Queue: 2 jobs
Job 1
Amino acid sequence: MKRVFLAAVVASLIGCTSSQVQTSESSPLGITELSSQKDCCTTLSKVSYEPITKSGDLTAVIDTNSQKVGLVSGVSYVKGYELPVFDGEANLEVISLVGNQVFVPSILILDNEHKALDVLSSSDLSYRNSGIMYSTHYAMEKTISQKYPNGKSPRYLVIFTTDKDLKNSTLIKPSSDSAIRSGSVEANLAANTEWNIPHAAVGTVELELDYSGPEVRQESKQQQQDREAALAAVVVTDQQSAMDTEFVELFDDRIRAAVRAGEFDRALDIMKQAEKQGSPTARETFVEAMKNFEG
């Protein structure tokens, strides 16, 4: 575990975990307040984004005073961050501790126009049971590329949860023998009872963001389709980030230049690359250039 997990464990020891953020005595999960029409809802472009100025740890507190955003996946309290300009890849680690309740996070990645580039969904989380040195928690480790295939760069992160996750609960799995022998109350409860933890609309999420790696995200056609399908489950199509006109025209110009030079295989390769990265005009440009070719 990296230092972000140690920070989360320390937070749990002093009583500030995702399971213990309560902003209403009558509704500690925050679901009643979330369902209220009060202060509902803002758009992704109107979220208050906290600037990230350096690599390191972040603590995202999401409570009933947080902004609400209505997404395809449901209304959620959110926490927004503005990413710094970085080269290569940003390595992101996410930790959400499981206590009396748990906030199950998903993360939207937006471009500079607040259009969705990607979603790190709760299905990317792994459940990690308690041991001698750590508490039960959900964890996610991902990389964020400096530039996506459509030419757009990530600019904002939005932490949220979904209706589907709010309707579920987490069954604590039996702990390891060593954890049980250590005398851990949590480990012994998990071993001897059916312990279901409710999912909450409020909580604390620990993050660590570090920068390094290659510049452009690489993905297959299937990976692109999977990413777009995952986004469609969260935001409507017109909120998804499209390929920059500048990049569309650049690919079209390269296709025409290759055809004029008689390099048809190269032109075909450029067309396929452009389509893979989301160009809506590359094939038409290739066909038109071939028709107009004068050898």
Job 2
Amino acid sequence: MERKEPNQLEDTVKSLLEKRSMSLRTLGKQTGIDVASLSRMISGKQKANPDYLQRMAVELGVSSDELFRAAGFDVGGTIQRGSVNDSFDFLRELLNGQRFSKQEIEVELAKYEDYARTDEGTNLIVEKFPEKRQQVPGTGPFIEQLDDMYNSFLKSSSDEERCILGSGLLYFVLSTDIIPDYIFPIGYVDDALAIQLAWSRFSLIRRDLGEKE
């Protein structure tokens, strides 16, 4: 994941503050961020904190994407149907080195596979997925892959396929995310990676079946 140069966060924040006749000190109070830390971050002296950017976006009345891009994050590439490993590299950078691993998501998916085999797990997916799906704003590859997974889950008659697809859908539906969904837009990144991992396994199974036929 590449950052754009130069960092435009300072100009963007100053412009937004001016439009709202708001001072940096007021923004600090409203976001609960120390004004000195805020000043260092927007001037580029301190690495941009995703949580701070999200809080600032709320108070400044703009989408968090705008501040993420201004800070140098290539937000447009966060949730794509690309390499899973590339996505994890992006996530580590976005979270400023916070501990996060592919294995953590794989452990959760493995737990959900057994649950997806049960009638209770299946009913939960069918009942809760449409509602949770509506909470995800925007469009794009993540949404397309999410819908493809749900439709494939409903159509598949294979127990193995359904438990793999179901594990990804249960990760999305249940509120046990490694990154909370309310931290938008990055709150859905681990959901997207879980979907990618499950979909990759599903695709391998379908490919293997095709080669045997």
